[in-house]
Amino acid sequence: MHNYNKTFGSKDSLYATVSPIGATVVKLTYYGQDLIYPLKGIDSLSRRRGGIPICFPYFGSPTGRYSDLPRHGWLRDEKLEFFGESDNEGFFFGRSKPTKEYPWELEYRVSVLIDPEAASLKLELEVVRVDDGLLSLPAPINPGFHPYFCGDPNHSISELFASVNGKLITEFHQNAAMIASEGKVFVRSGNHNLKLSAPECSCLVLWSDSPKKESAYFCVEPILMKPATFGDCDGGRFLQIGEDLKMTFSLAVVR
Description:
Number of domains: 1
């Protein structure tokens, strides 16, 4: 297996570049203009910014017994196998290795679909827990998507916006803010208005690491459930052996 990026779509309209590392969309352009902030610093974990990383099997920094697990999970650092290439669609596969901190085994597939005519990108994450022998221990899971949208370096982050269920959002916090994901979600990214859809996700995280300065990017991040629910026996999501989970994320240019 190699690390060469895969490309989908048409350079004459909508075009995506996807890395086999985490099946991360590193660049998405529409008639030559960036629709998302391109991934930079892929070899620098401390300052990696951009693209559309998939946070799996959880979003954020786990606490308690899971506090030693890496922030945003391991998928974004994992080299995945690639199969089934076409001009507009591809599939990436992986399987987790049990560790002391996360002893469960999961198989996962990420599909990438570009529709140049509809000017849309769709990501689908499919996960199944395999027979890992831990019958009495359900596997905690809470994935999310971490897209970076284009800011305007000539304006402050307060002049960038998203719209959630008709409510205008202009505040993006370094410590992150959270709102319910309901109704229609639109994001202004660079010169384009985008419709964001993630129907399985119940909340959105709004974030920027430079909210009071000129910013090149900001994030509207759909998550399955609130990050604090990961591993929570009362409110968290778990997978039994043989159980699966599917999540989708899509962006479409509003024309």
